[in-house]
Specification:
139 residues, alpha+beta, 4 helices
Length: 139
């Protein structure tokens, strides 16, 4: 299970980098809200949807990351206050790990775990590096 210590270190590093970068504010809509002006989902709200109480890894103004371990497996839930922060995180995301992506949130884990979580969280599976033309998204 050496992957998860690396994921934890990456989540912390990405969180610190993003939290220290300038981001533009703005009102963004939580996943599944059909354009209504609502607050984005929190790490705690997303985690609760899959039966987890997260252990916070990053708790900054612009980015929050929590670690979860459930019967589905281990994963990291990250939320952002602005699209610019999410974009910065996605640019630094590990290309070798798939992630589940929604409005102002991501979940990082193995494909097997993400397939199970997607049923309850929604979002899109990003299977390869989003910066290349080979990126595959599973809706």
């Amino acid at each position: 299970m050496t992957t998860f210590p690396r994921l934890a270190a990456f989540a912390l590093l990405a969180g610190l980098v993003t939290a220290c970068s300038s981001g533009s504010g703005g009102d963004y809509v939580a996943a599944g809200q059909n354009g209504r002006n609502t607050a984005p989902l929190t790490v705690e709200q997303l985690s609760a949807k899959v039966g987890c109480r997260p252990r916070m890894q990053v708790d900054a103004t612009d980015i929050r990351t929590g670690y979860c371990k459930t019967s589905d497996g281990e994963f990291f839930v990250t939320t952002f206050t602005a699209q610019a922060g999410k974009d910065a995180w996605m640019d630094a995301a590990p290309e070798y790990n798939p992630h589940l992506v929604g409005k102002l949130w991501t979940v990082l884990s193995s494909r097997k775990v993400l397939d199970q979580l997607k049923q309850r969280l929604g979002g899109d599976l990003h299977l390869t590096d989003h910066r290349t033309k080979q990126m595959r998204t599973v809706g």
